[in-house]
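Please fill in the sequence for the structure shown.

STRUCTURE ENCODING:
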């Protein structure tokens, strides 16, 4: 065929079948492709596609149903595809959304609506998680991730789709890390790990640092402290500014403490102290949250006496913290109080932590309470255990 409309489908001789979804994956997600697609120029799109897939003009022609001469004319701008049907078919075979070549149809409108809806879903899910509603965040993100992954599996790997999928996977993993019990936290880490498969293609240090930061924290919660420290150190190194670095450091300090690396823990905590006066405080990076991290790290690195001296020095809140941080802080303070033989103080702290963990549906924190109370406060342990069983039953249902 040398002009007019495209053939009904790719040729069946083996040479004309389009590259597989796996072969096609990522080529439209690169920064170079973004520049090509921004032009909406068919000639540039065809040349880029051939270069990425190592095709000559004859092979591309077999894929699209044209001969080499017509492909050459299209790439040189001597011929054009003016009819909508042909442009739509080119987008289908090259795995592009039709609006790239100026085609607006129902399917493409649905695609763009999905992206707009997806952006809102990711933002609102993060707000819900930080407000103590992680279960609702999971419910919102599951269908979005499934829909985006189905599109990628079908070979549609546009940059905006992959970018949204990367952030949705992170959001889902982190939300799961809030609502799952300890024995299932590896699931949360797997979801954040799946994001790393995507972000490396975007060449965006801020996005890569964010993904490594969130994945590293889920690894720590899954008790893979060594791997967590490695990811978080990379996240800190890639952080493009002090605000991004301040987001990493508290999580790196927690992981260093969990690993028992006192030298790294102290160094990171000193840096956080230095940054407190120069960056905006957030729900994680603030004196209140850092005080809890300091106490837990001191205990983990064998400096109990220092933790006991500091336990009553809880700073005044300077910003709004995520509700779960209040539970985390109560458990840590209760632990220190037990180590200081302050049984009544520990009972008060841990009892309040149980009630808040139930309200916020935080099984992992209930398990922390049980470990802290074991052998010391049997009533607190049993209350937390019963609450955990109820949460597990609800999740199973």
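FILLED IN BY: designer on duty
SEQUENCE:
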């Amino acid at each position: 065929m040398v002009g007019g409309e495209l053939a009904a489908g790719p040729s069946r001789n083996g040479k004309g079948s389009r590259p597989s979804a796996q072969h096609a994956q990522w080529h439209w997600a690169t920064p170079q492709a973004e520049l090509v697609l921004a032009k909406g120029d068919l000639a540039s799109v065809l040349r880029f596609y051939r270069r990425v897939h190592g095709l000559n003009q004859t092979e591309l022609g077999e894929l699209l149903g044209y001969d080499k001469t017509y492909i050459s004319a299209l790439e040189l701008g001597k011929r054009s595809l003016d009819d909508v049907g042909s442009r739509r078919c080119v987008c289908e075979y090259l795995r592009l959304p039709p609006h790239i070549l100026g085609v607006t149809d129902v399917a493409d409108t649905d695609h763009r609506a999905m992206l707009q809806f997806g952006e809102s879903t990711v933002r609102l899910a993060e707000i819900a998680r930080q407000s103590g509603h992680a279960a609702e965040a999971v419910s919102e993100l599951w269908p979005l991730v499934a829909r985006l992954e189905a599109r990628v599996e079908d070979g549609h790997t546009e940059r905006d789709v992959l970018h949204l999928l990367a952030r949705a996977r992170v959001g889902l993993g982190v939300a799961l890390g809030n609502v799952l019990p300890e024995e299932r936290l590896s699931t949360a880490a797997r979801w954040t790990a799946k994001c790393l498969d995507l972000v490396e293609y975007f060449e965006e240090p801020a996005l890569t640092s964010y993904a490594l930061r969130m994945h590293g924290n889920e690894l720590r919660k899954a008790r893979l402290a060594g791997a967590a420290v490695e990811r978080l150190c990379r996240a800190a190194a890639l952080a493009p500014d002090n605000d991004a670095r301040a987001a990493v450091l508290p999580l790196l300090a927690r992981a260093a403490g969990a690993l028992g690396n006192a030298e790294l823990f102290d160094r990171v905590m000193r840096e956080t102290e230095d940054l407190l006066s120069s960056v905006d405080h957030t729900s994680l990076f603030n004196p209140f949250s850092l005080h809890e991290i300091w106490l837990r790290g001191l205990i983990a690195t064998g400096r109990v006496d220092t933790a006991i001296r500091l336990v009553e020095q809880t700073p005044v809140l300077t910003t709004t913290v995520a509700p779960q941080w209040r539970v985390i802080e109560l458990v840590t303070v209760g632990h220190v109080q037990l180590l200081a033989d302050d049984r009544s103080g520990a009972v008060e702290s841990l009892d309040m932590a149980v009630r808040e963990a139930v309200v916020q549906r935080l099984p992992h924190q209930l398990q922390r309470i049980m470990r802290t109370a074991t052998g010391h406060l049997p009533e607190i342990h049993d209350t937390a255990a019963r609450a955990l069983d109820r949460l597990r039953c609800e999740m199973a249902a």
